[in-house]
Amino acid sequence: MSLLDLDLTKVTYYDLNNKLNQPLNDQIQLEKDQAALTAFLKENVEPNTMKFNSLKERFDYLIQNDYLEAEFLNKYSFAFIEKLAQKLNDQNFQFKTFMAAYKFYAQYALKTNDQAYYLETFLDRVLVNALYFADGNEQLATDIALELVNQRYQPATPSFLNAGRKRRGELVSCFLIQLTDDMNSIGRGINSALQLSRIGGGVGITLSNLRGAGAPIKDVKGASSGVLPVMKLLEDSFSYSNQLGQRQGAGVVYLNVFHPDIIEFLSAKKENADEKIRVKTLSLGVLIPDKFYELAKANADMYLFDPWSLEKKYGKPFSYIDITAEYDNLVNDPTILKKKIKARDLEEEISKLQQESGYPYVINIDTANKANPIDGKIIMSNLCSEILQVQKPSLVNNQQEYEVLGTDISCNLGSTNIVNLMQSPDFGKSIETMTRALTFVTDHSDIDVVPSIQNGNRQAHTIGLGAMGLHAFLAKNQIAYGSTEALDFTNIYFMLLNYWTLVASNKIAKERQTTFVNFAKSKYADGSYFEKYLTNEFQPQTKKVQDLFQNIFIPSQTDWQNLKLAIQKDGLYHQNRLAVAPNGSISYINDTTASLHPIINRIEERQEQKIGKIYYPAPYLSNETIPYYQSAYDMDMRKIIDTYAVAQQHIDQGMSLTLFMRSTLPAGLYEWKNGRTNKMTTRDLSILRNYAHQKGIKSVYYVRTFTDDDGEIGVNECASCTI
């Protein structure tokens, strides 16, 4: 029997899983999901997994048939590989839900070329990941294997899926590039988008530096076509470069709200936009300086400034000019091309589009830069809005060669599973192990087709460790999402992630006698970064959270002072360490909730291609935890914003924060709705965006709207950047 011969009409696991959505005597039939899991392993996995007489025979087959690389395996004795494989078997790993097993075997397990047989189990994939990322270090391989099999750590999908494979995509998740205001840069940028989309991963591009429509070219008035034609070229590029049809190329373009094309930029995503300008598959994001919030609050006019005249005046691209600081000077300078609109009209346009499509993403660019400890400027984000790193512009000549090689960004991501990490025998060692696994990815990423990304990675050694399963942890411990106890826990958990990744990065820098480029100019080097930890005691404040951290080390001000001195002495290897990405299918495999968001449904419904609907119960769902599993759509979004804000203070990059709204809002949820319509309006979105800005949120990802006809607007999972 093979997967090709499997008769889906005769298997029982889909019907059993579907009973999750059919209450019996007002009770959720959770036991049916366990029965579905057992049936799936028996009816699908066991008969369709290729059998081998020994581990050696299996690895020989996989290498000889070009399924696995031999090089990483040859760094170990086979006796050690066998010993590690046995250690993994001894951990007694079991999937907890049908969805977890189904997702792993459907999307992650290595299969034969004809897709007829599975060639690995979850433990086999863990073993290969551990051996690959440890790069010949037996102790590190053992440590990584234990973090993975106990599901305390989850590499991002590209890393987990591709590790060790002979025919594979890149290990990194996504990319960020910038265009400058000349045709050579635009041409090179489109080529970069093609190349990066080909090798996998979403691509973020900022268009803020490009002159607006009607701006002069070589002092000829009204010659530029603006950013919209470039957007169309990029959309077509992503559509064409789609990994041989395996996946839709994915890209996002960012534009500063003070760019003269901002209204047209937003209009390109509207359903009724002219086909000549409409972008259907390209994502949109806006970069919002503090000045915009100030002008909108005052209901004032705002001026839009053309990048061509700004660069001519300041000698640097638009993205690198502090609009908030320079705004009045720009308004009063007659040499700067500008036009005037009402700030609230633009705020309304942003809210309208978010209501209609979920776009644009919002990057509070001044907030990101104020918190940035690195010398340089953050100018954009990525396809999921959690990557925020400094960049430098490049200069491309007429031969499409780099006269000045700037720095762009590649992201390699991983996630802690909060429930399981809180049970780690050694929290700090777990984080160091994860940091070292991620460091392997950044050290071995070499995107030579886009030299600016290759250069940025070589200089910065950045990683992005995040978290999943916050709502699962809170519900399991009977803590209400957004409550005082929940915020207390979130604060301490992310403080620990920050502390231990700093410890690990410092340790690696000391071992290698190497830091990221320009460490000496950072706030780590001058010590100012640590001020908040030296003047505030970050300790659990509530009794319940104190009990949860009872057996976990919490650093004191003295510990932070010692860490500060160690970092000033030996530096940090990684320019950036933390970022919270959205979690897609990989959170199901971890049997946990996605990212830091609340759940949507206690029994989540997933539409899977070819087979129909699959149901996934909220982790640890029971009569005791049900009251703590409130849907995000029924929750005050300020609870989500507050949760992310508490975590954000410890995270050097960003977080993919999604807002969940209903077309008809639950009564009493927002005090400003009293006496007004209960329908969700653009005013509601504007208030929430302003609240997020006030709370120090760096970015807002999607706005997802649950409509009155049970549909969802703004749902477009990023398969490339999800953990």
TrEMBL record:
<dbReference type="InterPro" id="IPR013346">
    <property type="entry name" value="NrdE_NrdA_C"/>
</dbReference>
<protein>
    <recommendedName>
        <fullName>Ribonucleoside-diphosphate reductase</fullName>
        <ecNumber>1.17.4.1</ecNumber>
    </recommendedName>
</protein>
<dbReference type="GO" id="GO:0004748">
    <property type="term" value="F:ribonucleoside-diphosphate reductase activity, thioredoxin disulfide as acceptor"/>
</dbReference>
<dbReference type="InterPro" id="IPR000788">
    <property type="entry name" value="RNR_lg_C"/>
</dbReference>
<dbReference type="InterPro" id="IPR026459">
    <property type="entry name" value="RNR_1b_NrdE"/>
</dbReference>
<dbReference type="InterPro" id="IPR013554">
    <property type="entry name" value="RNR_N"/>
</dbReference>
<keyword id="KW-0215">Deoxyribonucleotide synthesis</keyword>
<dbReference type="InterPro" id="IPR039718">
    <property type="entry name" value="Rrm1"/>
</dbReference>
<dbReference type="Pfam" id="PF00317">
    <property type="entry name" value="Ribonuc_red_lgN"/>
</dbReference>
<dbReference type="InterPro" id="IPR008926">
    <property type="entry name" value="RNR_R1-su_N"/>
</dbReference>
<dbReference type="GO" id="GO:0005971">
    <property type="term" value="C:ribonucleoside-diphosphate reductase complex"/>
</dbReference>
<dbReference type="InterPro" id="IPR013509">
    <property type="entry name" value="RNR_lsu_N"/>
</dbReference>
<dbReference type="Pfam" id="PF08343">
    <property type="entry name" value="RNR_N"/>
</dbReference>
<dbReference type="GO" id="GO:0005524">
    <property type="term" value="F:ATP binding"/>
</dbReference>
<dbReference type="Pfam" id="PF02867">
    <property type="entry name" value="Ribonuc_red_lgC"/>
</dbReference>
<keyword id="KW-0560">Oxidoreductase</keyword>
<keyword id="KW-0067">ATP-binding</keyword>
<comment type="similarity">
    <text>Belongs to the ribonucleoside diphosphate reductase large chain family.</text>
</comment>
<dbReference type="GO" id="GO:0009263">
    <property type="term" value="P:deoxyribonucleotide biosynthetic process"/>
</dbReference>
<comment type="function">
    <text>Provides the precursors necessary for DNA synthesis. Catalyzes the biosynthesis of deoxyribonucleotides from the corresponding ribonucleotides.</text>
</comment>
<keyword id="KW-0021">Allosteric enzyme</keyword>
<keyword id="KW-1015">Disulfide bond</keyword>
<keyword id="KW-0547">Nucleotide-binding</keyword>
<feature type="domain" description="Ribonucleotide reductase large subunit">
    <location>
        <begin position="560"/>
        <end position="582"/>
    </location>
</feature>
